[in-house]
Amino acid sequence: MLMFANSRFLYLLLLVPVFLLGYGLMRYFRARRVKAYGDPSLVEALMPSWSRSKGWVKAVLFSLGFALFVLGLARPRTGAKLAERTTKGAEIIVALDVSNSMLAQDYSPNRLERAKLSIARLTERLQEDRIGLIIFAGTSFVQLPVTTDYVSAKMFLGSIDTGSIPVQGTAIGDAIRLSIKSFSAQSEKSRVIVVISDGENHEDDPVAAAKQAAELGIKVYTIGVGSAEGQPIPVNGELLKDKEGNIVVTRLDEETLRKVAQAGGGAYIHAGGEEFGLNPIIQDIRAMEDEEFGSIVFEEYDEQYMYFFAVALVLFVLEMLVGERKPRRKLFEV
Question: Contact, 296 vs 81, CB < 8 A?
Fold first, then answer.
């Protein structure tokens, strides 16, 4: 089956009928100008070497060459096959808080967008490690199962906002328990959960969940997002207010996040700097024993673009060699 890697170039094929139509119109208006000078048959007699058909031959050759050149630009490929591949690395599940408090602007542009940027940079530094993504507020949801497809991870990451989870709150414990269930069956040793949250208004027991993870050999790290002074929460162009009309101020709960990290055998890091506190976690992951993972992937495609370019080049050369004059001698001349 023929597939195109850069299919957007195929839109250029719409120019092919434009070329032929344009040439036809040019011939039409040229015939009208000739008719204006005198009798067309007399004008043709004055130009006996001029060929009517060769102009169309040149136009068709150029159009076909251009079409094949465009198909080459679109990179036609064949031969995709499924194959088993073995990789070595760790499994990392990032649990990201998407509650409304993550809209606070302790960071630019806000806590959530800054956290998403840091996760995107984390994927750029991974090699053969597998990464999964869980989002949580009052409840949790698997946004991306563990994978080595870092491009998809960034794509799923870009679609996350505070409306991704309809139930508000900060259920860190539920997110950790869902993370535990989300590791692959192949993973036994090098497993890490990274919780990114402000830790405020937690609704369950995240410490007990972290202990459960540690008992299963899973390390739990926490990254605290926010400041102790707190910030108001902008929602729909206005500051969020409580039932009494007071402006809600969200503050970082470092104590809870420290306890969770301690119970999970990991570490607590306050988000800061360009790397958002991820460097120490990455260093710890690199020190872990790599685990082997088997996965089914697509093999490399066989590129076919060079054949299209070759035929297009031949057609362009032929188009240049074909003149607009009749041949001086007929092929079968008596």
Answer: no
Which of the 8 DSSP states describes residue 71?
A: H
End-to-end CA distance of the chain: 52
CA pair distance 156, 151, nearest whole angstrom:
9
The DSSP symbol for 332 reads S
Place of tokens 């150029």: 62
184's CB contacts (< 8 A; 6+ apart) are 91, 130, 146, 293
Alpha carbon separation from 287 to 90, 180, 327 (Å, rounded): 10, 21, 79
pTM above 0.70, yes or no: no
Q: Please check whether residue 110 is in contact with residue 36, taking contact to mean a CB–CB distance below 8 angstroms.
A: no
Consecutive H or E run containing 3: strand 3-4
Give tens-digit pLDDT for 293-329.
555 555 567 788 899 999 999 999 998 888 666 655 5
DSSP per-residue letters across 98-127: -SGGGG--SSSS-HHHHHHHHHHHHHHH-S
